[in-house]
Amino acid sequence: MIQISLNINGEDFDVDVSPDLTLLDLLRELGFHSVKKGCGEGDCGACGVIMDGIYCKSCLVLAMQANGRDVFTVESMGDVNDPHPLQQAFVDEGAVQCGYCIPSMLLAADVLLSENEDPTDDEIKEALDGNLCRCTGYVKQIAAVKKAAKMMREEENDAE
Questions:
Q1: What is d(CA 127, CA 123) in angstroms, rounded to the nearest whole number?
Q2: What is the pLDDT of residues 24-54, one digit of tens each?
Q3: Which of 1, 51, 84, 139 could make an S-S bridge to 16, C-beta 3.0–4.6 Å?
């Protein structure tokens, strides 16, 4: 076993991990169930997280590679009482069906909007690429990201 320290959603964790444990499995063991186990090969995107500001597939990252890093799951974004603009837009646009892929899509979109406040459809498609959704044709997710971008720009303008 190897002891690692990492920060998940603003909380510090010191844990012992086996060398072959994935970040995905560690997160789920620690109770972060929004991170889904899909294909285990990085193809479906259900396990997406943000690590040190970069969207990544946690099934492809060993837990010990997260040592000293900041990891964010969708639990860090908002909740029912105070949703993040992306979460609200996904609901408003009907972009959530079964919900299996949505946590990872929200995180991928969050990274995109942190870098680009007014993305084009093609930029949104590129950011969401690798997040497979079997319920939709992605049209509503793209509309939701555009709506959230607009909501976030308006919030920023109101704050100024």
A1: 6
A2: 999 999 999 999 999 999 999 999 999 999 9
A3: 1
Task: State which amino acid sits at residue 153.
Answer: R
Compare 155 and 53 and report the one with higher pLDDT: 53
Backbone torsion region of residue 79, taken as left when φ is above 0, otherwise alpha when ψ lies between -120 and 50, otherwise beta = beta
Phi, psi of 66 (to 5 degrees): -90, 0
Phi-psi map region of 95: left, alpha, beta (phi>0 left; psi -120 to 50 alpha) = alpha
CATH number of 85-159: 1.10.150.120
Separation of first and last alpha carbons in the chain:
50
Residue ranges of domains in the chain = 2-75, 85-159
CB atoms within 10 A of CB 59: 23
| Domain 2-75 in CATH 3.10.20.30 | yes
Residue 136 has which token pair?
């939709």
DSSP string for residues in 39-108: -SSSSS-TTEEEETTEEEEGGGSBGGGGTT-EEE-GGGT--SSS--HHHHHHHHTT--SS-SSHHHHHHH
* Residue 109 tokens, joined: 């979109």
